[in-house]
Amino acid sequence: xxxxxxxxxxxxxxxxxxxxxxxxxxxxxxxxxxxxxxxxxxxxxxxxxxxxxxxxxxxxxxxxxxxxxxxxxxxxxxxxxxxxxxxxxxxxxxxxxxxxxxxxxxxxxxxxxxxxxxxxxxxxxxxxxxxxxxxxxxxxxxxxxxxxxxxxxxxxxxxxxxxxxxxxxxxxxxxxxxxxxxxxxxxxxxxxxxxxxxxxxxxxxxxxxxxxxxxxxxxxxxxxxxxxxxxxxxxxxxxxxxxxxxxxxxxxxxxxxxxxxxxxxxxxxxxxxxxxxxxxxxxxxxxxxxxxxxxxxxxxxxxxxxxxxxxxxxxxxxxxxx
Length: 322
What we know:
Layout: H1 4-14, H2 17-39, H3 45-71, H4 85-93, H5 97-108, E1 115-116, E2 124-125, E3 130-131, E4 137-139, E5 144-146, E6 151-153, E7 158-160, H6 165-194, H7 202-234, H8 238-242, E8 246-247, E9 250-251, H9 260-268, H10 301-307
Antiparallel strand pairs: 1-8, 2-3, 4-5, 6-7, 8-9
Helix pairs in contact: 2-7, 3-6, 4-5, 6-7
């Protein structure tokens, strides 16, 4: 039997197949659009140039956000969430779950941790040996605990979480717009080839297929984009949408929601000029989050989001609604 590290290397190589597929499709779409459509099919220079300029703008934003999503390493918890040496030794020696929980509760008192397991226990990862920060989950594929984990996406071969969720949403948005640009500019020549108004050339297959592929991808990507925009507006991750987070005082599916504007700001930042660019502008540090558990002045929410990343102290939280 092959050594386990060889199997892991093979698995990691196979994980890049979806990414390779996406890049091959994008590469072919570039050839079909630029060469077969703009160079060989469009007779008007002004139309050709305008198409090429618009196409390359959206292609650049699409590829930029896509590779930022791929290359952004998932954010991990800080050492502050690990057990001190003495408590760790006690935890590992202890066989009773109740006593282990008492050890975890003692350490968690000094951490900004408000969520619990479904049974009300402190969330602890035995693989990473840390108390899980709120909204943090262990990814078996990445083999680490990921801050504000949304899901592991095979199409980017990466975990989508605090460090790259904005990039992921922009990737979906620009992929949709990229498909819209292709469909809107190709459809005229698609109809001409389909109705025999243009002679059958080697460009015909590429243009007909390009329209169908772009339309198909647009429909599938738009549905996913719509879902994630809804999640942003509700301040939920995909995991939280399927399994509501459990707080000290019980389950609350809207426990992290601060209102639409502040929810959007948490992902995209508080400066609108950065929203459309795949540069990091999300608020906070991914370790602590404003919740709705206790009273604060709502006007303080934005400042809390901006400053809660300074150090892992107990964050100010908001009162739960009825």
